[in-house]
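Researcher: Let's run the pair from yesterday's discussion. Sequence first, then tokens, for each.
Model: Starting with the first of the pair.
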Amino acid sequence: MRCTLPLSALALAIAISVHAAEPFQASDIRIDGLKRVSSGSVFDALTIQPGDRVTDADISMATRALFETGFFDQVEVRADGDVLVIEVTERPAVSRIDIEGNQAIKTDDLLDSLRRAGIVEGDVLKRATLDQLEQAIQRQYTSRGRYDATVSSEIIEQDRNRVGLKISIYEGSVATISRISIVGNEAFDDDTLLDEMSLTEPGVFTWFSGSDNYETEKLSADVEAIRSYYLNRGYVNVEVSEPQVELSENLEVVFITITVNEGQEFRVGAVNVGGDQPIDLSAAVEEMTLQTDEIFSRRLVNEAVNTMSKKLGDAGYARAQVRAVPEINDETQTVDVTLVVTPGPLVYVRRVEFRGNTDTSDVVLRREIPQLEASVSSAAAIEKGRINLQRLGFFSLVRASTRPVPDQPDQVDVVYEVKEQASGSLSASVGFSQGEGVLLGAAVSQKNFLGSGNALSFSLLSSSSTKEARFSFTDPYYTIDGVSRGVDLYFAQTDFDDTGTADYSTDETGLGLTFGYPVSNESRISTSFAVQNTNLDAKASGSRASYIDTFFTSEGLSSSATAADFVEYKVGAAYSFDTLNKAFLPTDGTRHRLSFDLSIPGSDLEYYTASYLGETYIPVLEQEDVSLKFKTRLGYGDGVGDSQGLPFLKNFFAGGIRTVRGYTYNSLGPTDSNGEQIGGNVLITGTAALQFPMPGFKETDQARLSLFGDAGQVYADNAELGDLRYSAGLALAWMTPIGPLSFTYASALNSKSTDETEGFQFSIGSTF
């Protein structure tokens, strides 16, 4: 039979039976009726022990103590000869807890509240606790501005001394802030201080942000934000009182009043360093922004402490403590700050350990760590190792920490904890354009081949105009000193006539070898040598563009020739500088690459090309993970010796998702006499973007939106900046379980009638 009892009627009849008897000495204590409660819990509550002399008063006290545990509905204590018998009837156990009606607070959070109150499935129900629990849940909703929320509970009797617990919640509506008043502020106006608060008065966008919904915790944080604003601007004696919150009669509107007592503005007096100074800290003092006569700021004091701690940590004093001691002088309105240094021992690194690298070999990680074992600990070297591991692109998470060595106060172990992510990719692409028709592509790449850190890739591309295959292998540590070696083998067959952009086709086969040399932790120099054979097949003279006739003549061939083979021997050099904080979706740092390629004597085609790629990321709102991105790509090429300019086969192209979005692939630049794109020897492209996390994604490193503007063009010889093409739009980059996805929608801002535009562009792949 199932019956439902209201909470107000939870108290059951307690039968307490005490058998009056003469005092006796209890030789033993026997407990009857226990099912779920342990005998230890009973003995812990008893004040009587075997061997004690027991009186009626002792029995009454023991009975009350057992009942107060909350475990029993009935308690009977009696003497059976010289044995004290305790017979109990346990309160029912909670077999099931159901919560309904909650949306603003997660069920798991409410269950945690139940656990803290001692109500857990399988445990004995303490009825008094249930009343307290209702009040606690009610307070949670009140703190979130839901003043009309109600909480009720039902106990549902079941068989075998069990009950079900049902908690019903009516959450009500959130009280809306009608007005926030700030009283007593003179140095800063209301709008300035209100901008520091997360809670706001109703506005145009608050229906979306919900910032005008009252929450107690947010208000407390806002009060502290106002106080911090003053403390960071010289008002060291500022007082921000507890806010007054008035509630309307219908419980739907609140009025907030915050009172401020500003005090006077203080400046920095003397800045001193005290305590033990094991190293020269004068450089650290000069680096600090906390300087005499500047307006006092608590933030600058904290930064000074961090600067000093970092200097000590870099010098091996990993356990150094720096404490700021301010001395306020009300007469001069200055604050003297003394940074007291307690250096602790010079700390050495015993071991460098790695955790979580299930696929990647330890040696791959260890060669990226500048912090050496058995050497003095350096906070800068430890952090640099973390950044190096993050930039490998093998891990979605990298943490660095130090762990004290037991009984060795001057030693620590450095632990790098990583989380492997897919470093290989298997990508497939399907596309369509008016010029090339259906395009199919497939690529396999592995940046961490068999956990060795070596990079291996193979790709195929096929369309109505292009057939391409490419293989590459790179060993980033060909030598122990970090010299890298890369090998590239490729074949490409392109029929530009099928694209409608030119009157020729090419077959290219090449082999290249590249060596890279580390200059510093952030920069490298590379040299390369490559040999390439190009077979050019052109239309018959008279039906093709005139620039092809001119090219054949310049190469000593007949202007009526239709085919030729060219062998090239190329050398190259490049310099790269990279301080990006991570490989995928960086938010801070810069990357530059400057390269130069030259076809050497003996080549059928004599020319050179120079190119530059630069990227800069600047955090603008670090807490919100918002950053600015600037990207520039430049290219220039020309003939060498008797060659008349850059061979048209080596021209630069622009347009598409990688250069100027909003325009079709390779559609920008000069055209031939037939109006078809032929590229040019000068390339200019640039991008400016505001990057921010994708709303709704907890892993902000895996998805990012950006508002961007692109500019670019390809020129023949002379760059006319007035001919630049511009576009703007929205882009999404997303690392998904099936691989990296990129979507862009761009609008061409100044396209001409001859330009080919394309609003939506995307690329897709899958990882393994």
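Model: Moving on to the second of the pair.
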Amino acid sequence: MGSPEERFHFAIDRGGTFTDVFAQCPGGHVRVLKLLSEDPANYADAPTEGIRR
């Protein structure tokens, strides 16, 4: 397995209305997403969708 600098790190806060996804990508790039916690027409699970994106 790669060193910590070569891995993705995620923090997810799933609330009643929104799910926040924080991703630290290899190389230090940071990405933050806010998704609806429930949006069955577009995805089955907000945390999984946030990681996918």
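Researcher: Give me one sentence on the second I can quote.
Model: Helices lie at 46-52.
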